[in-house]
Amino acid sequence: MIRVSNSQEKKVASGMRRLRTFLFVPGNHIEKIDKVFGYGADAVILDLEDACADRDKVAARKTVVEALKKDHEGLGYVRINAIDTGFCFRDLDAIVGPWLDGIVLPKLERPEELYAIDWALSEYERERGLEVGAIDLMPIIETGYGMNNLERLCAKPGRMKRFSFGAGDFTRDVGIKWSADETELGYVRGRMILIARAHDLQPPIDTVHIQLDDTDSYAESVATGVKFGFQGKLLIHPKQVALANQSFMPSAAEIAKAKAVIAAFEAAERDGSASIQVNGYFVDYPIVEKAYAVVAEARLQEA
Prior knowledge:
It is built from 13 helices and ten strands. The protein is an alpha/beta fold and 303 residues long. Strands 6-5-4-3-2-1-8-7 form an eight-stranded parallel β-sheet. A two-stranded antiparallel sheet has the order 9-10.
């Protein structure tokens, strides 16, 4: 009988399945919105910000609400406009309701901004008969100032369970050349993973990949996100969904290896040994804990 460690049992019991894929769609393109929930993403982000022309932003609020009211697969998020624009709080007023699963907040830089949006969401939830805190809030860290403030942002996250990374605006803001292999993003990716863990947040969501005709570099970007420990990835095209969904969960081979490690270790532990080899692979308590995590993650994704 394969057991799961206590920390993993809590995750399974809470039903907090990790979200691997967040697929953007312009909030002003009705024909695209009508199709977007059918592509298999864990969550769809109806975009009122960068993907929505300024002239359409006000009308698009109604469009995204009507779309979210319809039956659909996956979760429905809306990316509002940044807090320093005239659209932000009017976006919230227009879209908050029982049809909304989450808000994506772009260009978060200061804790005060996070508090303000959280407070406004709570007021709208109370006003509209929703459970306070029911609507998720996922910021995007996409400026040098926001990245520098990340420790402060995560210290009192409120309803924020995780944050995401926007490399497009980030590299523009700090003057980094965004290359196909993304090696220049290694430092900030590692920093985001460590800070999220230090504050007991879920692993962050990795950046979009914009070179749509380069499937090799997209696959490398996904693999890099997995290797660093991200939970999932922001996506901008339906053809990106399948690989990300598959990659940000344990493979059949990884699950089989984890089960073999657990079975062998538990047998050895009963005989008083906590340091063994399994198919040439050294296993002790930290390694078997990672195996427990793989099995638990597979169960969460199947739930």
